[in-house]
Structure formats: structure tokens, C-alpha cells
Amino acid sequence: MVLENYDVDTLDRHVRIHATPVVIAESVSLSGKADPPPEIVLGTWGWIKARERRENAFFEIYDPLRFEKSSNMSFARFRQKTLQEFATAQWVDIRMENLQVLQGPDYMVSVFAQRTFPHGEQGWRRLYWMRQVELWKIVGEEWIPQNLGGSVNYTQLAGKEIRERLRECAEAWDKGDLKTLLRAYDRTGSRNGAQGREAIAASLDRDLAAKKENPYSAEPVVRVTKEGVEARLQTDGHARTILFLPGAFDSWLIASDETAKQP
Fold first, then answer.
1. Which CATH number applies to 36-145?
2. d(CA 199, CA 5)
3. Do residues 220 and 239 touch, judged by C-beta distance below 8 A?
4. What confidence score (pLDDT) does residue 70 get?
5. Strand 135-145 relative to strand 238-246, pairing
6. Which residues are paired to 237 by β-bridges?
7. pLDDT (tens digit per residue) in 22-45
8. pLDDT tens digits, 59-91
9. To 10 degrees, the CA torsion angle through 116, 140, 19, 109?
10. Does the pLDDT at position 14 exceed 90?
């Protein structure tokens, strides 16, 4: 591609290296702005959630055979490399910015800026999708480390979000809304020794029936730890520790909720 100097100067104000998508095609036509395909948007959010959960289900999003062709790496090696990355930290919070979805001849590309907390990793992620029967699968990906600019105080950000989550739980408790309370807990979470959603529901139901003091309403002390984001509260003469982990769509879920009597 050859451009005059004037055109280069004009484009320079709008093009970012490694970030602005490039289309190679025989022709290009402009049309009205369309929303990104919902299945690719949801698939991209699903990729983020699966990577945060660091479970084997993460690899089910990929098409192993096509991925090997595009990456020149065996899927077994990719899996091993990714699991090694997972082992370096107990949890991560991935934040997505500026999501764009581009359509190719027989594939889709989701492109977004990615910030990974609490480690501070940042850059641009590209996920290449192809339809496999009824499902879209990832057939290739690119990661380009890059300073995205702007300063994010993650402790402050997480603290604000956790306080809002606790406020929602406090309101649900006052209303006796068991369903809303239960949705705040991770499916593998625990509450005072009760493990899993069914046991947590029973624990919450007992405390609501006993008209115990609202366990979410006290002002928390929030801190980022190796295990997750921890909120400590004082309720009814007891110290309460609630550990949060990232949920879907930049939400937070309670991984553990334990009360200990003061000595």
C-alpha cells in the first residue's frame, strides 16, 4: 500500500499501532453503524469469565485443530502453557475496554484493550472466532503487551465496587429477598461452613427466619489479598470476613463468608 505524505499525516491522527484494526479486502463500502454480533460479544465475555475462573472448561471455548494451524503450536502445549500461567496467581480480575468486533470472510475477530489486576498487565487482545456447527469457537488469538495509558487505582476501584455489592446484599436482607442474596454467592462458595448454593440457601434462610442482625450493613474495611478482595465487618459483636472473587461482566461474587466470635 502506497500513500502520499499528506495522507500519512492525516491518518496519523487516527491510527494507533497494534490497536487500530486493518482490513485487507478487494473492496470496502460504508454502511450504517451496526451493533457487534451478540454471540461474539457474549463469547468474548465468556472467555474472560473462564480465564478468571482458571478451570479446565476454559479450553472448551477453543477449536483445537484450527487453533494449532493458526498458532503453529500444539493445543497440548498451549494448554500446558496456559495452566502454568494460571498457577502463578490464585485469582485475576480481567477488565475489558473498547471492544470491537470485525467480520471476515468466514470468521469474526473480537479486539479489545485488556487490563489484568491485581498484577497490572495490560495490552491488546485479539480473539479469532469460527463457527463450529451451532457454536462459535476460538481458532486463534494474539496478545500485544502495551501501555494503555491512564492510572487505575485498583484498590480504590475494587473497594468502591465491593461496598456497592454489600449495599445490594444489605437491601436484599432487609427485604427478605433470598434469591437476590443467593445470587451474590459463587456456586462453589461457602457461608459459615455451608458449602455450595443449596447449603448456603439453607444457611441464609435460617438466619432470615431468626431475624438476625443484617450481616452486610456495617461499614467494611476492604483490602486486596492473594486470595481475592476481602471485606471485614463487625456485626452483632462478631467479626465477619467476606472474600470476593470476580464474577461475570465485571461483577463480584462471594467466595467465602465466615463469622468468628470475638475473643
1. 3.10.450.50
2. 68
3. no
4. 93
5. unpaired
6. none
7. 555 555 554 555 666 899 999 999
8. 999 999 999 999 989 999 999 999 999 999 999
9. -110
10. no
The domain segmentation of the chain, as residue ranges, is 36-145, 154-261
Over the range 190-221, which residues count as b (16 or more CB within 10 Å of their CB) and which as e?
Answer: bbbebeeeeebbebbeebeeeeeeebbbbebe
Q: 8 pLDDT exceeds 90?
A: no
| Amino acid code (one letter) for 259 | T
Fold of 154-261: Nuclear Transport Factor 2; Chain: A, (3.10.450)
> At residue 160, what is the residue type?
K
pTM of the model as a whole: 0.84
With helix as H, strand as E and coil as C, how does the chain read?
A: CCCCHHHHHHHHCCCCCCCCCCCCCCCCCCCCCCCCCHHHHHHHHHHHHHHHHCCHHHHHHECHHHHHHHHCCCHHHHHHHHHHHHCCCCCCEEEEEEEEEEECCCCEEEEEEEEEECCCEEEEEEEEEEEECCEEEEEEEEEEECCCCCCCCHHHHHHHHHHHHHHHHHHHHHHCCHHHHHHCEEEEEEECCEECHHHHHHHHHHHHHCCCCCCCCCCCEEEECCCCEEEEEEECCEEEEEEEEECHHHCEEEEEEEEEECC
Q: Which cell numbers in the block locate residue 97?
A: 475496554
- Evaluated on CA atoms 157, 160, 163, 165, the torsion sign reads negative
Q: Which residues pair with 113 in a beta bridge?
A: 97, 124
Closest CA to 202 of 214, 185, 216: 185
